[in-house]
Each structure stands twice: as structure tokens, then as C-alpha cells.
Write a structure and sequence with these properties.
alpha+beta; seven-stranded antiparallel β-sheet; 185 residues; two-stranded antiparallel ribbon; Alpha-Beta Plaits; 5 helices
Length: 185
């Protein structure tokens, strides 16, 4: 069973019930710097090396520095076992809701740059290995995209409790996800 971890920094959430954390606005100076009036997106974040909570917090702060990205809120951090070959250490996972004027591929490029700022050795370890930070684009409004670099909504997110639990804990869960879950049952 997942363990909810409440961070003492900007990402603490108030719990309605111990197993149902309530999302709170991300309160940082950087999150107010952007003024996009664009697309609502959800990003999944994970870390299983080093100070996992600090690296998730740092990633959110870096995401908020882009003038075309506004971080709206963040879920609690959830601890989950590593999957596949991602190493022996458990992951800490979170989901953030953002608003952006970037296109899906521009957002993907910015996310990849953000990952490399936190984990410059990431590419040397290879894909699916232990990492300081991993950021996935989960949704881009209700856009369905099948591009060689990006598939939206994220094709495996419904299979992954470490994505769905924090995502569904946020208010305003994207209808495309809810419809996809209904279609799958």
C-alpha cells in the first residue's frame, strides 16, 4: 500500500482523510511569475535517488520559472516501489497541475531540460534506471496525440497506481482521464 508523505516545504497538503489528501496551491514566488492563460496540463514526477522530496520540490520550482508555465497545484508525495529496472530504492511520486501557453512538444523539451538540470548524469544511466527526477507529461488538456516523441494522454498512466493515485487526489481531474477509465471498465 502506498504511503503518503507530506513535505514540510511548499507542497504540504491538508488531508480530508488520511488516504485522501487534498491538493493545495503551490505557494512559491516562482509559481506566480508566469501569466499563461492557456492549456491545463498534468505532469507526473518521480524520484528514487538522493533526497527524493527535495528533488521533486526543485523540479516544481524549476518548472515554475518558465514565463509560459504556471504551476497551479501539486498532489502529496506518495512512496511506491520501483518498477522494472529502476533500481532497489523506492520512488517518491507526485503530480502537478500546470497552465501553459507552450505547445505539447515545447513543453516536452522544457520538461527534458528540467530533468537534466537536476540529474545531469541521467542519460548515462539509461532509460528506466534509477533517477533523481523523472517528469512525464500525463495530459495536455483533452488533446490526443500520437507523435514519435510524445503520446498523449500518457499511454500507461492508467496502469500505474503511482500516477493515478496522486492524479486523482487533485481537484479538477481531467475529464479525458475519467472518460478513459470508464471506457476501460
Amino acid at each position: 500500500m502506498d504511503q503518503v508523505i507530506h513535505d514540510s516545504n511548499n507542497f504540504t497538503t491538508a488531508a480530508r482523510h488520511p488516504e485522501e489528501p487534498q491538493a493545495q496551491p503551490v505557494l512559491s514566488e516562482a509559481s506566480g511569475s508566469g501569466s499563461p492563460s492557456g492549456t491545463i496540463c498534468y505532469l507526473g514526477l518521480g524520484s528514487n535517488l538522493g533526497d527524493r522530496a527535495e528533488q521533486i520540490s526543485k523540479a516544481i520550482e524549476l518548472l515554475a520559472t518558465h514565463p509560459q508555465v504556471k504551476v497551479i497545484c501539486s498532489s502529496s508525495n506518495y512512496e511506491n516501489p520501483a518498477i522494472e529496472d529502476a533500481g532497489p530504492h523506492d520512488f517518491l511520486n507526485s503530480v502537478v497541475q500546470i497552465e501553459t501557453d507552450l505547445s505539447p512538444l515545447e513543453l516536452l523539451d522544457f520538461v527534458l531540460e528540467t530533468e537534466l538540470k537536476i540529474d545531469p548524469d541521467r542519460n548515462e544511466r539509461g532509460r528506466k534506471q534509477a533517477r533523481k527526477i523523472d517528469i512525464d507529461l500525463l495530459t495536455y488538456a483533452e488533446l490526443k496525440l500520437d507523435h514519435e516523441r510524445l503520446v498523449l494522454p500518457h499511454p500507461r498512466m492508467q496502469e500505474r497506481e503511482f500516477v493515478m493515485k496522486p492524479l486523482l487526489s487533485l481537484r479538477g481531474t481531467p475529464t479525458v482521464i475519467l472518460r478513459s477509465i470508464e471506457d476501460a471498465t
